[in-house]
Write a structure and sequence with these properties.
single chain, 400 residues, 8-stranded mixed beta sheet, globular
């Protein structure tokens, strides 16, 4: 799959950080992780931290798939509102999902601690009402979140203007958000996995899986065989080809990064809106502004390639409506594949098509990295034959 178009900022900023050797001989391990993006890296880090022997393979260079195009907006909010998710799955289940995302943010901070260059920073988040008619909906959403112990304070249009200079009908502000460089974090995590004894191999393509009651044989296109007790499919949007049912819909999303700016409050506060698809922005550690959004239904790389510049122009135009005094200079623009599920929740766990030893890590949605942090613990629990409180809600048996 061609997952990105244009010039994703993380790959430009960091370059090819390290080459891992392709798999050239048979291997035996506890867990084979398929996919060397941020999801696979978080899973491998979690497993090796708790004593599991891990082999990870990636068909490209590490981090070069959708991770390189991620904008890494880390929030507890799910693209599906808490009130809507409660209508679908019940209020307790919806609140459990939201609280788990809130708890994943400090967990990501702990995982990132001491890792050089990953730019993890806690931030505030503003959720803007795009139109006056959105005010009652967003206020009700804030009430629902506060009812379950989540941070969400209402700002009137006047308070919002005083806080950030943004002209909108109102907003929810939360202190529970963060940013990170997902590409650098992926490399740093997998370097740590290697130091713990895990084996990381890029440019290694999975060809076939054969399951049994005792394990999984995974054959690569180059020939070597990996014998594992369990396999975790963390190949991002390419994981869907290993499942017969279609569990998500692929779309394209667009982003740009500016030259360094005097950001003021935007240096510590990310912004997104109630419109769908939504515009969002957040800062980077070197004082740039990263804008994203304007998702569309295009999943054809060549057509996406041609839309990148037009979408970048539209992103800047939308930004100027919020902050007319800001004068950003765009530096790089890109687009990438983005998948969404019907209810905005991810898929983690085993599927009946493959049996209990093949686990999927499909962290689809706007807060995929947050989901991946949760999923790493969920999948470790499954491999260790322990029950996890989210295994049903995030698993393939839930009704959507």
């Amino acid at each position: 799959m061609d997952l990105k178009s244009g010039y994703p900022w993380w790959a430009v900023r960091n370059g090819l950080m390290r080459a891992f050797p392709p798999l050239q001989q048979d291997e035996t391990c506890d867990v084979l992780v398929v996919g060397g993006g941020i999801s696979g890296a978080l899973v491998a880090d979690e497993l090796t931290a708790h004593g599991h022997d891990v082999v990870l393979i990636e068909q490209r260079d590490i981090g070069w798939g959708s991770t390189a195009a991620s904008t890494a907006l880390l929030q507890y909010e799910i693209d599906t509102h808490l009130v809507e998710l409660a209508d679908r799955h019940g209020e307790q289940a919806a609140a459990l999902a939201y609280r788990a995302c809130a708890e994943a943010l400090p967990a990501l901070g702990e995982v990132s601690a001491g890792l050089r260059g990953v730019d993890f920073k806690r931030m505030d988040s503003l959720y803007l009402c795009s139109r006056p008619r959105d005010v009652p909906l967003v206020q009700a959403e804030g009430e629902a979140r506060r009812r379950h112990g989540l941070d969400a304070r209402w700002l009137s249009s006047e308070e919002l203007r005083e806080h950030s200079g943004i002209d909108a009908p109102g907003a929810l502000i939360t202190r529970q958000a963060a940013r990170v460089d997902p590409y650098c974090l992926t490399y740093r995590l997998l370097e740590r996995v290697s130091r713990r004894g895990g084996r990381v191999h890029d440019r290694t393509v999975l060809h076939s899986l054969q399951t049994s009651a005792r394990g999984v044989h995974a054959r690569t296109e180059q020939g070597p065989l990996v014998r594992a007790r369990h396999v975790v499919m963390a190949a991002g949007y390419a994981s869907q080809r290993w499942l017969k049912p279609r569990v998500a819909r692929n779309r394209s999303s667009y982003a740009l990064v500016t030259d360094p700016l005097d950001l003021g409050v935007l240096g510590t506060t990310m912004v997104w809106e109630s419109a769908r698809p939504y515009l969002y922005l957040r800062s980077t550690g070197d004082h740039r502004l990263l804008l994203g959004g304007l998702d569309d239904s295009i999943d054809i790389p060549l057509r996406r390639d041609h839309r990148v510049q037009r979408r970048a122009d539209q992103l800047l135009e939308r930004l100027q409506r919020w902050l007319p005094a800001l004068r950003p200079t765009p530096a790089f623009a890109w687009g990438g594949t983005f998948a969404e599920t019907a209810d905005g929740l991810p898929w983690f766990g085993a599927h009946e098509q493959w049996g209990p030893r093949v686990h999927f890590a499909m962290a689809y949605g706007g807060n995929g990295i947050t989901y991946s942090m949760i999923g790493a613990g969920l999948l470790r629990a499954a491999i260790e034959r322990r029950r996890h409180p989210l295994q049903d809600l995030f698993g393939f048996k839930r009704k959507v």
